[in-house]
Write a structure and sequence with these properties.
The protein is α/β, with parallel strands linked by helices. It contains five helices and ten strands; from the N terminus they run ββαβααββαβαββββ. It has an eight-stranded mixed sheet with strand order 5-4-3-6-1-7-10-9, sandwiched between helices. A two-stranded antiparallel ribbon has the order 2-8. The radius of gyration is 16 Å and the shape is globular.
Length: 185
């Protein structure tokens, strides 16, 4: 059985984008990027909402002529299957991608049961639905040393889930990578 892993790059105050919708402050340096690449290697499928898919789709053509760490990420992303949940998209533009109109926790549980590779979930809106449904097994949070004061929260309000810290990495630029698993009951 695969794990469902939510990964997010967030400001220290917990936002994935600031109040203006910008996330340029979240661009990882080479060391952070390499660590993120290592964390996503086991992922065989990504689950995205429309906005996160629109953001990530650039990786389909990105990477050529880029630094090796960027090329590595692009290769990993292209090799994975993608499921995009959207009621507004009529088609997807990347290979290995299917469009589904609505998030269904039962379908995600079935996917996790029948695959041997981990499943990543991206985007705080879609992740919130999976978190509330009790589906997320692991949380990868990359905390950037900046306060942005508002925007889109990385984690939803109104939840309480005990977690166990499995890994922490500190980077020279002040970024922290935290990996948590849901505590067994």
């Amino acid at each position: 059985m695969a794990r469902l892993i939510y990964s997010a790059i967030a400001s220290l105050d917990g936002y994935t984008v600031d109040a203006d919708g910008r996330f340029d402050w979240a661009a990882p340096d080479e060391a952070v990027h390499a660590s993120v690449n290592d964390l996503i290697r086991p992922v065989g499928t990504y689950l995205y909402g429309r906005r996160m898919y629109d953001t990530m789709a650039v990786w389909q053509t990105m990477g050529e002529g880029e630094p090796p760490v960027v090329q590595d990420f692009a290769d990993l992303w292209r090799a994975a299957d993608k499921v995009v949940y959207s009621t507004t998209l009529t088609e997807v533009t990347t290979p290995r991608t299917r469009l589904v109109p609505a998030f269904d926790p039962a379908e995600v549980r079935d996917l996790l049961d029948r695959t041997d590779r981990d499943v990543g979930i991206g985007g705080p809106g879609l992740a919130a639905a999976a978190i509330r449904a009790g589906l997320v097994d692991e949380y990868h949070l990359v905390l950037v040393p900046i306060l942005v004061g508002g925007g889109t929260r990385a984690l939803p309000d109104g939840i309480r889930i005990p977690l166990d810290l499995r890994e922490e990495r500190r980077f020279a630029d002040g970024t922290m990578l935290l990996r948590y698993t849901r505590r067994a009951s």
